[in-house]
Write a structure and sequence with these properties.
globular, 16 helices, mainly alpha
């Protein structure tokens, strides 16, 4: 049972997720991680996200990330930890966030009471998160909370993003969607990353993608043109509803008013970040 308006937590989580994701599309990440000796873009981003888990290998990350091809992960993990330790990566990650948010949002926004308010609300929401069966959330929850408000906000956004993401994986398993099928069906909604981006960052081949399309057609979830059928749309909606249910606790802790306020503040910051070029123009789409 929930006392929140329908999809209130989802709307808030969407903006918080994208604020967290500015890290992975930042040119500052490339610069900073090259300074650590990590030169491959995929290795940089895999290390940046998995560092809270420690010096883990490909198997652990395949389980925690769900939709990456194991062969891609094995090219970089655990070898990347011989170049830079998880502790060094975590320190570099915060430096990237600091530089990136200063560039995207500007000094005035970072010093604003609104940003500090958003950080406080997001951290309060994160107090409602649970550790069990949530490895990426739990690893990040072990990290110290930074002092600067914009870094506190990003840290809280990361906790909320990974908490929701860990729950979403349980929903994907329940729905019977394998890693590539999950990607294909999300892209088919028009709200997911484009196939070009997914294939280059997740390590799957075009043949893997096409085979997943055929499997989803066989289940009646995609039509001949690769669009979601009524059954496919219903499945994706049920997935998000189940993810909402598993992710309700943080937003229940904030309450309806606090959740609405955090969503308003986060969306405003996100609009500014997107306007400053936080994400590639061709990141999403069906083509």
């Amino acid at each position: 049972m929930t006392n929140l308006p329908p999809r209130a937590g989802r709307r808030c989580a969407h903006s918080m997720n994208l604020l967290h994701a500015t890290l992975f599309f930042s040119p500052d990440l490339d610069t900073e991680f090259e300074g650590l000796g990590i030169e491959d873009p995929n290795a940089m981003r895999l290390a940046a996200r998995s560092a809270p888990l420690g010096a883990v290998g490909a198997g652990t990350v395949a389980a925690a990330f769900y939709n990456y091809r194991h062969e891609l992960l094995a090219r970089h993990l655990p070898a990347v930890w011989e170049t830079a330790s998880p502790a060094a990566v975590l320190e570099a990650r915060l430096r990237v966030v600091d530089t990136t948010l200063n560039r995207l949002l500007g000094a005035e926004a970072l010093a604003s009471p609104e940003l500090a308010e958003a950080a406080g609300l997001a951290l309060r929401a994160a107090e409602g998160c649970a550790r069990h069966a949530r490895p990426l959330y739990s690893g990040n929850a072990d990290l110290p909370v930074p002092e600067a408000p914009h870094l506190r906000l990003w840290h809280a956004a990361t906790l909320l993003r990974e908490h929701r993401g860990d729950g979403h994986l349980a929903a994907l398993l329940t729905a019977g969607l394998d890693p590539v099928e999950a990607l294909v069906s999300h892209t088919a909604t028009g709200r997911g990353m484009s196939p070009r981006w997914l294939l280059s960052t997740r390590g799957w081949r075009r043949t893997d993608w096409e085979a997943a399309v055929e499997r989803l057609r066989g289940r009646g979830l995609l039509d001949a043109d690769g669009e979601l059928t009524a059954a496919g749309t219903a499945l994706r909606e049920a997935l998000e509803d189940e993810t909402d249910r598993l992710d309700a606790a943080p937003y229940e802790r904030l309450g309806a008013e606090g959740t609405a306020r955090l969503a308003e503040l986060a969306k405003g910051l996100l609009v500014t970040a997107v306007g400053a070029g936080a994400f590639p123009a061709d990141l999403t789409g069906k083509a």
